[in-house]
Amino acid sequence: MRDEFSRLEIDETLPRISVPPERLMEQLRHHDLAPAISGEPLELFQDGHFNEAVRRACEKFEAKVQKLSSHLGKSGRDLMAKAFATSAYLDLQSVEDGNKQSFTEGFRLLTMGSMAAIRNIFSHGDEERRSPEECFEMLLLINWMFRLVK
22 or 143: which carries more pLDDT confidence? Predict the structure, then answer.
Protein backbone atom coordinates (compact mmCIF):
# COMPACT_ATOMS: atom_id res chain seq x y z
CA MET A 1 0.00 0.00 0.00
CA ARG A 2 2.85 2.41 0.79
CA ASP A 3 4.24 1.75 -2.64
CA GLU A 4 0.89 2.67 -4.18
CA PHE A 5 0.71 5.89 -2.18
CA SER A 6 4.22 6.88 -3.19
CA ARG A 7 3.26 6.59 -6.87
CA LEU A 8 0.24 8.90 -6.49
CA GLU A 9 0.61 12.26 -8.17
CA ILE A 10 -1.23 15.08 -6.41
CA ASP A 11 -2.13 18.21 -8.31
CA GLU A 12 -0.66 20.95 -6.11
CA THR A 13 -2.71 23.62 -7.91
CA LEU A 14 -5.97 22.34 -6.45
CA PRO A 15 -7.26 24.42 -3.54
CA ARG A 16 -6.82 22.90 -0.12
CA ILE A 17 -10.06 22.62 1.79
CA SER A 18 -10.09 22.45 5.55
CA VAL A 19 -12.96 22.42 7.95
CA PRO A 20 -13.48 25.39 10.28
CA PRO A 21 -12.60 25.05 13.94
CA GLU A 22 -15.46 23.46 15.84
CA ARG A 23 -15.72 26.48 18.18
CA LEU A 24 -16.61 28.74 15.22
CA MET A 25 -19.20 26.28 13.94
CA GLU A 26 -20.73 26.02 17.41
CA GLN A 27 -20.96 29.80 17.66
CA LEU A 28 -22.62 30.03 14.24
CA ARG A 29 -25.05 27.20 14.99
CA HIS A 30 -26.14 28.90 18.22
CA HIS A 31 -26.24 32.42 16.82
CA ASP A 32 -29.47 34.02 15.64
CA LEU A 33 -28.58 33.90 11.94
CA ALA A 34 -30.76 35.38 9.23
CA PRO A 35 -32.40 32.61 7.19
CA ALA A 36 -30.43 33.68 4.13
CA ILE A 37 -27.17 32.99 5.99
CA SER A 38 -28.24 29.90 7.93
CA GLY A 39 -28.77 28.02 4.66
CA GLU A 40 -26.27 27.84 1.83
CA PRO A 41 -23.61 30.22 3.23
CA LEU A 42 -23.47 28.30 6.53
CA GLU A 43 -23.17 24.98 4.67
CA LEU A 44 -20.35 26.37 2.51
CA PHE A 45 -18.56 27.64 5.60
CA GLN A 46 -18.98 24.29 7.34
CA ASP A 47 -17.53 22.52 4.29
CA GLY A 48 -14.43 24.74 4.36
CA HIS A 49 -15.37 27.08 1.50
CA PHE A 50 -14.88 30.22 3.58
CA ASN A 51 -14.53 32.83 0.83
CA GLU A 52 -17.46 31.35 -1.08
CA ALA A 53 -19.65 31.38 2.05
CA VAL A 54 -19.05 35.09 2.50
CA ARG A 55 -19.57 35.81 -1.20
CA ARG A 56 -22.92 34.00 -1.20
CA ALA A 57 -24.04 35.81 1.97
CA CYS A 58 -23.23 39.16 0.33
CA GLU A 59 -25.07 38.19 -2.83
CA LYS A 60 -28.11 37.19 -0.80
CA PHE A 61 -28.02 40.52 1.05
CA GLU A 62 -27.77 42.36 -2.26
CA ALA A 63 -30.72 40.36 -3.67
CA LYS A 64 -32.83 41.22 -0.62
CA VAL A 65 -32.10 44.93 -1.02
CA GLN A 66 -32.87 44.73 -4.75
CA LYS A 67 -36.19 43.04 -4.01
CA LEU A 68 -37.14 45.55 -1.31
CA SER A 69 -36.18 48.64 -3.21
CA SER A 70 -37.25 50.01 -6.54
CA HIS A 71 -33.62 50.07 -7.68
CA LEU A 72 -33.68 46.70 -9.43
CA GLY A 73 -31.43 47.95 -12.22
CA LYS A 74 -28.71 48.76 -9.71
CA SER A 75 -26.25 46.47 -7.97
CA GLY A 76 -23.36 46.63 -5.56
CA ARG A 77 -22.34 50.01 -4.20
CA ASP A 78 -24.76 51.90 -6.45
CA LEU A 79 -27.69 49.85 -5.16
CA MET A 80 -26.72 50.41 -1.54
CA ALA A 81 -26.18 54.14 -2.10
CA LYS A 82 -29.67 54.53 -3.58
CA ALA A 83 -31.56 52.12 -1.33
CA PHE A 84 -30.15 53.49 1.92
CA ALA A 85 -30.09 57.17 1.01
CA THR A 86 -33.07 57.33 3.38
CA SER A 87 -34.22 55.07 6.21
CA ALA A 88 -37.20 53.76 4.21
CA TYR A 89 -35.85 50.18 4.19
CA LEU A 90 -34.31 50.16 7.67
CA ASP A 91 -35.72 48.92 10.94
CA LEU A 92 -34.63 51.69 13.30
CA GLN A 93 -36.77 50.76 16.30
CA SER A 94 -33.70 50.19 18.49
CA VAL A 95 -32.03 53.47 17.43
CA GLU A 96 -32.68 56.61 19.47
CA ASP A 97 -34.57 59.32 17.56
CA GLY A 98 -31.64 61.74 17.69
CA ASN A 99 -29.33 59.15 16.13
CA LYS A 100 -31.49 57.88 13.27
CA GLN A 101 -30.10 60.22 10.61
CA SER A 102 -26.48 59.46 11.52
CA PHE A 103 -27.22 55.75 11.76
CA THR A 104 -28.86 55.74 8.33
CA GLU A 105 -25.89 57.50 6.78
CA GLY A 106 -23.44 55.16 8.50
CA PHE A 107 -25.41 52.06 7.48
CA ARG A 108 -25.46 53.29 3.87
CA LEU A 109 -21.68 53.69 3.92
CA LEU A 110 -21.16 50.30 5.59
CA THR A 111 -23.28 48.52 3.00
CA MET A 112 -21.57 50.33 0.14
CA GLY A 113 -18.19 49.39 1.61
CA SER A 114 -19.26 45.80 2.12
CA MET A 115 -20.11 45.49 -1.54
CA ALA A 116 -16.69 46.88 -2.51
CA ALA A 117 -14.48 45.31 0.14
CA ILE A 118 -16.18 41.96 0.58
CA ARG A 119 -18.55 40.96 -2.22
CA ASN A 120 -16.49 42.34 -5.09
CA ILE A 121 -13.18 40.86 -4.03
CA PHE A 122 -14.66 37.42 -3.40
CA SER A 123 -16.57 37.52 -6.69
CA HIS A 124 -13.28 37.56 -8.57
CA GLY A 125 -12.01 34.00 -8.19
CA ASP A 126 -8.41 35.07 -7.61
CA GLU A 127 -8.68 36.28 -4.01
CA GLU A 128 -6.44 34.51 -1.51
CA ARG A 129 -8.21 32.09 0.77
CA ARG A 130 -9.12 33.88 3.99
CA SER A 131 -8.96 32.30 7.42
CA PRO A 132 -12.10 30.79 8.92
CA GLU A 133 -11.93 33.40 11.72
CA GLU A 134 -11.91 36.32 9.29
CA CYS A 135 -14.77 34.90 7.24
CA PHE A 136 -16.70 34.15 10.44
CA GLU A 137 -16.46 37.85 11.33
CA MET A 138 -17.59 38.88 7.85
CA LEU A 139 -20.60 36.55 8.06
CA LEU A 140 -21.61 38.12 11.36
CA LEU A 141 -21.33 41.61 9.87
CA ILE A 142 -23.57 40.59 6.96
CA ASN A 143 -25.97 38.94 9.42
CA TRP A 144 -26.19 42.21 11.37
CA MET A 145 -26.93 44.11 8.15
CA PHE A 146 -29.70 41.61 7.30
CA ARG A 147 -31.23 42.17 10.72
CA LEU A 148 -31.56 45.92 10.16
CA VAL A 149 -33.28 45.73 6.78
CA LYS A 150 -37.09 45.64 6.87
Answer: 143
